[in-house]
Every structure is written in C-alpha cells, then in structure tokens.
C-alpha cells in the first residue's frame, strides 16, 4: 500500500478529491451561513431556532431518501465522471437560487428569503444524493484494492476539513449576505472546473434497466443489499452514526447561543472543532489498520465517543453563562475557565466518531463487485437518510415538548451504545 497522502499526487484521485472538497465546502458554507443568519439575525426564540435548524436538516436529507436508488442505478450504468460533471453544472444553478435568497434577506424581507434559501438546501441535497454514491464507488475503479481504505479515509478527512473551512468562513462572513452569495457561486464554478479533470470511469457491468419509481426502486435496492449480513450490519452502524451526527449538528447552534451564551463565532468554532476531530479520526484509523479493512476498532471507538459525549454534557453543565442580554465573543469564550474542557470533550466525540465510521464505508465498496458499488452506497444512503430524517423530526418534536439540547445529549449516548452492539456483531461476522 502506498502512503495514503501519496494518492493526492495521482490524477486518478486528486481531481475527484478536489471536486468533493469544494462541494462539501460550498454545501457547508451556505448551510452554516443560512443557519447562523437565521439564528442570530432573524429568530429570537430557542424553539424557533431549533425547529428551523431541524427543518433545514430534514429538507437536505429528503432527496437522499427519494432519489438515492436512481442515483445508484445511474452511477452503475453510466460513466461516473460524466455524471460528476452534470451534477457540478447543476450546483451552479442551485447556488444562484441560494444567492438570490441571501441577497433578498438584506432587504428586510423574511418569508421569501427563507423559502429561497430552503429551496437551495433541497437542491444541494439532490446534488449530494447523485454525487454521494460516486465519490466512494469510483475509488475501487480508480485505485488498487489495498489503497481503497486509504482513499476512503482521505475522502472522509477531506470532507470534514472542507466542512471545517466552510464553518470557519461562515462564522466570519454570515452577516454579509452579499459576500456569502458571491463566494458560494464562485466555489461552485471552481468545482465545475475540477470535475472536468476527473478521469473516465465507464460502466463495468451490463447495462441496467432504470426504475424511475422512487419508492419501488428504493425498496428493491435496499432489499437487494441488506440480505448480505456484513452489509446489513455495516449500513445499520453507519445509519446510527449519521443519526447521532444529525442530532448533534442540529442542537449545537442553539446550545451555543442559549446554554454557553456565546455568539455566532463560537457556534462556528464548535462546528469547526467537530469537523477537525472527524478528519483526525479518519486518518488515525487508517494508520492503525494499516490499510486492512476491519471493524475490530469500531466497538471501542463508538463507546469512547459516547463517553466523550457524556464528558461534553458534564462540562457544559459547569458553564457560567454571560450576564442577561449579553453573548460571549470568541475571546471572552476562550477566557472562561471551562472553555478548553468543552472543546476537548467535543474533539474527543469527533475523533472517535471518525475512527468508527471510515472502515464501515470501506466495507461497502469492497464487499460487492465493482459494477455494484454505486448501488450499494446508494442503498446505504437510503437507509441513512431515513434514519437521519427520523432524527431531525425527533429533535423537532422533543424540542417542541420542552426537552433541552443538554438533555438530548443523553439520547446521543444511548445511541452510541446501540452502535457499539451492531459494530461488535459486524466484527465477529467479518474479522
């Protein structure tokens, strides 16, 4: 196995990595800017803030549930590089709609800008639905078998580093909707350019007869994949992980504003630390496994993740809030006696989460033949989307019932326990 970072020198990997990096950066820059703008500039109520964040998360996820089956079929029946270029062209149009919403928000209007921005979120969900199966399924086609885990880890690490950058940038510029609109549109164009350099990845198996019925196609896709024991367990474990992630991402901005009593720059910092941690975990697990695709560290990783969530909740409980009507800025937040404990606990959550999920994605792309990898990833996306949608709806429901973000962290700990049991079964079945 070559050094994983050496893959970045290869034309069969770098353009794909760059395209994925720019796409994830743009998604996160737009969504984080929108959420921060709504949280700090539009709404003034914790319940409304959590509900809007949950709504945006659900709208982004719904296309995965409805269109992943079609995306997987197309990716396994067409040149994957061609689909990437089509998808990145669509991203330019999507960001034009989002930019319109951002610009309109500065006029003082509320409903129309939010509708346009949420329409763009749905569009980004569709964009990611069609790109998602390809970014993993193309790796076994372009890389040697013993480089697939390294490539998967780099894609995951790159994704979260791009989320980090998008989060940091959004925290500084979300209030300047003109700048956000211009930057997101420019990055979409840059992604279109890098997509044109992705080498061809033609169909390998027989041509498929596409099923355009989303419900029937999704059912057949999942049923045709989940009967394989290790795929079933891997997909279930990944779904629990992303449900946990969706809950955490939804509750972070309200928790920062209303519990840590900090401003948008700190909300951006919290999301950034989470992104850094997952990227670190993605690289660490590749080094620990030395390229071998194995789930032996997965149970311990997710148990440690649950323990870190408990630690995060404990440190948040020690927090001294700002005076009424005031919010800590970045410097004031970092000057608080428990700030480093909060960030260290959060970093632990993310590092162990990254160590848990990366080998599971490698399972998806190496268990089946190369002409079925995109449909396998798409089946995983369907199940993940259903689980994440359930998580988003559940957060909205329990928030409306009066459950606080701090209390929801206990639910996350319980879900980590379930994930550990599934991961242990996968380890026993495969290793």
Automatic annotation (TrEMBL):
The keyword Transport applies. Gene3D superfamilies: MFS general substrate transporter like domains. Pfam families: MFS_1. Keywords: Cell membrane, Membrane, Transmembrane, Transmembrane helix, Transport. The keyword Lyase does not apply. The chain crosses the membrane at residues 50-71, 83-104, 110-132, 179-198, 231-252, 264-289, 301-319, 339-362, 382-402, 408-426. SUPFAM superfamilies: MFS general substrate transporter (SSF103473). GO terms for molecular function: transmembrane transporter activity. It is a multi-pass membrane protein. One of its GO terms (cellular component) is plasma membrane. It is found in: Cell membrane. It comes from the Bacteria. This is MFS transporter. The lineage of its organism: Bacteria, Pseudomonadati, Pseudomonadota, Alphaproteobacteria, Sphingomonadales.
């Amino acid at each position: 196995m070559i050094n994983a970072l050496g893959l970045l020198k290869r034309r069969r990997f770098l353009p794909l990595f760059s395209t994925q990096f720019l796409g994830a950066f743009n998604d996160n820059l737009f969504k984080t800017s929108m959420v921060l703008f709504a949280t700090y500039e539009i709404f003034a109520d914790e319940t409304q803030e959590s509900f809007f964040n949950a709504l945006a998360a659900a709208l982004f996820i719904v296309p995965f549930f409805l269109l992943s089956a079609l995306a997987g079929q197309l990716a396994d029946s067409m040149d994957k590089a061609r689909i990437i270029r089509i998808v990145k062209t669509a991203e330019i149009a999507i960001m034009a709609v989002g930019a319109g919403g951002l610009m309109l928000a500065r006029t003082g209007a509320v409903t129309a800008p939010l509708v346009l921005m949420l329409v763009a979120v749905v569009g980004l969900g569709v964009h990611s639905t069609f790109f998602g199966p390809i970014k993993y399924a193309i790796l076994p086609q372009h890389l040697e078998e013993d480089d697939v885990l390294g490539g998967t880890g780099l894609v995951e690490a790159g994704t979260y580093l791009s989320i980090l950058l998008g989060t940091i940038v959004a925290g500084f510029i979300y209030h300047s909707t003109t700048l956000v609109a211009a930057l997101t549109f420019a990055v979409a164009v840059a992604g279109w350019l890098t997509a044109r350099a992705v080498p061809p990845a033609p169909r390998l198996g027989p041509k498929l007869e596409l099923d355009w019925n989303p419900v029937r196609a999704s059912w057949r896709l999942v049923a045709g994949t989940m009967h394989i024991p290790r795929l079933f367990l891997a997909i279930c474990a990944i779904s629990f992980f992303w449900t946990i992630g969706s809950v955490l991402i939804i509750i972070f901005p309200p928790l920062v504003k209303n519990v840590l009593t900090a401003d948008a720059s700190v909300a951006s910092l919290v999301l950034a630390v989470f992104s850094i941690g997952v990227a670190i975990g993605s690289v660490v697990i590749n080094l620990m496994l030395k390229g071998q695709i194995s789930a032996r560290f997965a149970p311990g990783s997710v148990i440690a993740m649950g323990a870190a969530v408990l630690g995060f909740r404990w440190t948040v409980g020690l927090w001294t809030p700002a005076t009424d009507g005031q919010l800590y800025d970045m410097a004031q937040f970092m000057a608080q006696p428990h700030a480093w404990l909060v960030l260290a606990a959060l970093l632990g959550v993310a590092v162990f989460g990254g160590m848990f999920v990366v080998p599971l994605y490698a399972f998806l792309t190496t268990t089946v033949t190369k002409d079925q990898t995109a449909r396998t990833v798409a089946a995983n996306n369907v199940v993940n989307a259903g689980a994440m949608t359930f998580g988003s709806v559940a957060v909205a429901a329990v928030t409306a019932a009066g459950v606080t973000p701090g209390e929801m962290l206990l639910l996350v700990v319980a879900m980590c326990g379930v994930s550990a049991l599934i991961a242990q079964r996968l380890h026993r079945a495969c290793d």
